[in-house]
Design a protein that fits this description.
By secondary structure, the protein is α/β, with parallel strands linked by helices. About 35% of the residues lie in helices and about 20% in strands. A hairpin with a 2-residue loop joins strand 20 and strand 21. It is elongated, with a radius of gyration of 38 Å. The N and C termini lie far apart (about 95 Å). About 40% of the residues are buried.
């Protein structure tokens, strides 16, 4: 086209001159015609001034030649560009084929050892022979949709081998490299048998191949999902041969919030590929039974099976899903219908927010599209214990994980005395659980705390004192107003010296003094940590950044009713994880749910709470006489689940008709607190509620807090809970 412009510039003056001459000739002809009589022959007009007709012809020829030349040049240019582009595409398409034909020998030499290790040596060996044949056919298809960016295709193909396999869409290297690849194709099939209480999403992947199933794990093959949880420790996520380099949804942490998010993502996006990375050796499980029901099991192998009987007598596992529900991490990229993979025993040590990638403790990097941080927390310890030395630390348990439960169970069967430091939920639950064993194993159980009574920071004083007597009746020696000054190890015994001079000797210590949110990734990720409550500071949609969400214990969120908060309970992990998963798939919903929590002091006494329950706030309690139906055991028999929050979070917050039974006056100093409702007030508005041995009424309490109204007579409000009905 540049040449055409040059030619035109040279010819333009000549064309203009020719045009001017033509116009002059026309004028002269017109003047002559005006002078000459009308009888002059018309043919004479063609013989004007010399040269006029030739110049017109020359003008037409020049313009025509220029147009034809330009058209020819444009055609040849376009045709040449098209040929060069086609040559480029052919070159790109032939590279994977060349590499595949050059590398089969080396691949086959390096793979037999790995094949032997997984006992599937017969399956992959013949596949590389047939691998090159489908490659040339499949190669052009992914390239054609994106011809404008051949350079990008070249970059993708020259990246590490895992990147070029999905680009070319042919799988010879994929079939030849990971010998366990066909095995996991069978794993997504058992999700068609989900645990009814836990899984609400459709099955993530139908059966694609089932022939290699026997090579994986016979224990995961039977159709009963619950009994097979016995084999959970080895089955959920075997040591991966290849970690996926990229995942659309990355969930950091393997707790309740992470699993709830995975379910939510899969429910809204059935083909989603979700990767959970956890530093624990186990797949996602629920923590409440570790300090509750598991301790009351009569099964001597409970530490291995991790199955327990709920208060209603039904048996279940602490794992949310059996191993067969998950697919292997190395199979996630190739899963046509997506799925959930768990990468166990891997810790995320660095997070590159700008680059959308993380680094594991083995220097493996994984990129992501969207990420959830659900790292939970780590149990706190007393500084006097940390400074006491290694010998004291060996005899101290910080209770949080499955391994802590197994360790404490073993220790409690082989020692004479154990001391629990802490009077909160965890400390009181463990004290009651171990107290039940005191007679059978001749075990002395001591619980000490700085408050005046059990759960003194939560319950009003009169109810805290009553709870303390209840704990004592379980065989626990309670030491209140105890501040630990020092801990030393003498003669294989631990000596705990209190600030008031008292001395307690024990064989083992359980420190249950709170939880510290795990915000190790905040520094590398550049995420904000709340200075007052701890945890990652997030907005109403649980977002820390545009493609990063936080849920569970590690999230510090803004409560539209109660202000900024951080909650460390199971129900909050479920609800916040679910919401984060929905928002990761584009829901854009704000967090408005008031989460609840519950605690059981054995099968006979339990309570559920919501909102801000702080003993420093003014409280009003309304109590009634309890019946046989007013126990945690009866509540689980009615709801059918031991994890009460799972059923509560699904209920609608509609207040039933108030009881017509007249309510007695407010009781705050009765000797017996069978069942009742405790209201926590701030500026005369109810901000927290405890339901004491009152169950399946949480939606009502949630609605009261959500309304945020002043109530002149809380006795009338208590009628909504029907506590006076027999």
């Amino acid at each position: 086209m540049l040449k055409c412009r040059t030619v035109w510039k040279k010819l333009a003056p000549l064309a203009r001159a020719s045009s001017t001459v033509c116009r002059q000739n026309v004028r002269r002809a017109g003047l002559n015609n005006s002078r000459i009589p009308a009888c002059v022959p018309v043919a004479h007009m063609s013989t004007g001034p010399a040269g006029g007709g030739r110049e017109n012809q020359l003008y037409v020829l020049l313009v025509g030649a220029a147009c034809v030349g330009g058209a020819i040049y444009a055609y040849r240019t376009v045709k040449g560009d098209s040929q060069r582009y086609q040559d480029r595409i052919d070159e790109i398409s032939s590279r994977p084929y060349k590499r595949a034909t050059e590398e089969p020998a080396t691949l086959m030499q390096s793979e037999p050892p790995a094949v032997d290790a997984t006992e599937t040596e017969v399956i992959p060996e013949p596949e590389p022979e047939a691998a090159p044949s489908p490659e040339p056919q499949a190669a052009p298809s992914p390239e054609e949709p994106s011809p404008p960016a051949p350079d990008a295709e070249v970059a993708a193909l020259t990246e590490p081998p895992p990147a070029d396999e999905p680009v070319v869409e042919a799988s010879p290297e994929e079939l030849a490299e990971p010998p366990a690849a066909p095995v996991v194709e069978e794993e997504p099939s058992p999700p068609s048998e989900p645990s009814p209480a836990e899984l609400t999403e459709p099955p993530p992947a139908p059966v694609v191949e089932s022939e290699p199933a026997a090579a994986e794990s016979p224990a995961a093959e039977p159709t009963e999902p619950q009994p097979e949880v016995v084999a959970e420790s080895g089955g959920p996520a075997p040591a991966s041969l290849k970690v996926p380099s990229h995942t659309p949804y990355l969930l950091i942490g393997g707790g309740t919030a992470s699993f709830a998010a995975a379910r939510s993502i899969r429910a809204r996006d059935p083909g989603a590929k979700v990767l959970i990375v956890t530093d624990e050796p186990d797949p996602p499980y629920m923590r409440p039974p570790l300090s509750k029901e598991l301790w009351f099991s009569n099964d001597p192998s409970v530490t291995e099976t991790l199955r327990f009987k709920q208060w209603n007598g039904k048996e279940r596992s602490i794992y949310f899903q059996p191993p067969s529900f998950y697919i292997n991490a190395e199979e996630l990229d190739g899963a046509e219908n997506g799925g959930v993979a768990v990468l166990t025993g891997k810790k995320v040590v660095h997070m590159d927010v700008r680059g959308n990638k993380i680094k594991l403790d083995d220097d493996t990097e994984i990129s992501y599209d969207k990420c959830l941080i659900a790292t939970g927390g780590v149990p706190r310890n007393l500084q006097v214990i940390e400074r006491a030395g290694e010998e004291v630390m060996k005899k101290t348990t910080l209770f949080r994980k499955i391994e802590d439960f197994k360790s404490l169970d073993k220790v409690s069967r082989n020692i004479k005395s154990i001391t629990i430091i802490g009077g909160g939920f965890l400390g009181s639950e463990l004290a009651c659980a171990l107290g039940r064993r005191s007679t059978e194993y001749d075990l002395e159980v001591v619980q000490m705390f700085p408050e005046k009574g059990n759960m003194g920071k939560v319950l009003p004083e009169y109810l805290s004192n009553w709870t303390t007597e209840k704990v004592k009746s379980e065989g626990v020696k309670v030491i209140s107003e105890a501040l630990v000054k020092s801990v030393v190890c003498k003669d294989d015994k631990l000596e705990i010296k209190l600030k008031d001079g008292r001395l307690v000797k024990t064989d083992h210590i359980v420190a249950a003094v709170g939880l510290e949110p795990n915000v190790d990734l905040a520094k590398s990720a550049g995420l904000e940590v709340d200075s007052d409550f701890g945890g990652f500071r997030v907005n109403a949609e649980l977002q820390a950044r545009s493609n990063i969400w936080v849920a569970g214990d590690a999230a510090c969120f803004y409560d539209i009713r109660l202000g900024r908060r951080r909650v460390e309970h199971h129900d909050h992990a479920v609800v916040s994880g679910r919401l984060a998963g929905e928002n990761m798939t584009g829901a854009n919903k704000p967090y408005w749910h008031q989460s609840m929590f519950w605690s059981d002091l054995g099968p006979d006494v339990g309570y559920e709470a919501i909102g801000i329950v702080d003993s420093s706030l003014p409280t009003v309690g309304v109590f009634a006489k309890a019946t046989a139906k007013d126990t945690p055991k009866a509540a689980t028999e009615k709801s059918g689940t031991g994890i009460r929050s799972e059923s509560e979070t699904e209920d609608t917050a509609i207040s039933p008709m108030a009881s017509l039974t007249p309510a007695p006056t407010v009781e705050q100093h009765n000797d017996e607190y069978g069942k009742g409702v405790i209201f926590y007030l701030r500026d005369k508005v109810v901000v927290g509620i405890i339901l004491w041995n009152v169950f399946n009424r949480m939606p009502i309490a949630r609605k009261i807090i959500k309304d945020g109204e002043e109530h002149a007579d809380l006795n009338e409000v208590a009628k909504l809970f029907n506590i006076h009905d027999d």
